[in-house]
Amino acid sequence: xxxxxxxxxxxxxxxxxxxxxxxxxxxxxxxxxxxxxxxxxxxxxxxxxxxxxxxxxxxxxxxxxxxxxxxxxxxxxxxxxxxxxxxxxxxxxxxxxxxxxxxxxxxxxxxxxxxxxxxxxxxxxxxxxxxxxxxxxxxxxxxxxxxxxxxxxxxxxxxxxxxxxxxxxxxx
Length: 172
Hints:
alpha+beta
């Protein structure tokens, strides 16, 4: 995004991240441009980001910290699980009886579960699991997930190969 575009868009929304009525932060054009810069390269220097979006390095640092504090974004190292010792990944579809949020919260608390989504469709919850090996995966599914109150059944989709993993969907 060019700094002229950011400057013109930012005049429409003076506050970098106001909360909407639903409690979700409403981001201005400059904050969105900062996020896009960091999605391209999470290690990009604040000075370079500032130059791209028309802010000082200090202002970018403050904006980034506010976005982190509000939970709008995270800055993390994304790895290929196979290269760091996790040989088995699976997506587990869960059918729930009763309160779906209670089951989703319990799944979210498990260290092996990386991703939890409540869905409409064939499953009530989808959970992505990253494990050391098949025995570890079996233990997580059989002894921990299926043992949760409210879990009626599960279906596992074991990953054979990670073909694409990206978090660069931009902003709207």
